[in-house]
Amino acid sequence: MRCLPFTAAYGVIAIAATAEVTTRGAVLAVVSGAITSGLGYCVWYAVLPSLGAARGAIVQLSVPVIAAVGAIVLLDEPLRSHVAIGGAIIVGGLALALWQRRLVPAAAPAR
Hints:
Blueprint (H helix, E strand, L loop, with lengths): L3 H15 L4 H29 L1 H8 L2 H12 L6 H18 L13
């Protein structure tokens, strides 16, 4: 905690010395940070009550897979084998965690 102010000050100085802030860049940063994230959180918190706490926690673990798919589709990132294998493991684990067996009451034994 004691280093944080010095690190933050250095970061601001280093960025200010080399960065060029344009109006377009600032607008895109605000849109991607505030508006898009805000809409995402609005949707998430609107859906969360219908999921319940346990399911909501499990579903939230899919975020890295969604981000990877978004990077591949929208940013033309290459699909690498370790990303595909990791994503499959995560989705498989989520499926196992969300899968519920329907418990059928056992029939009473005949007398």
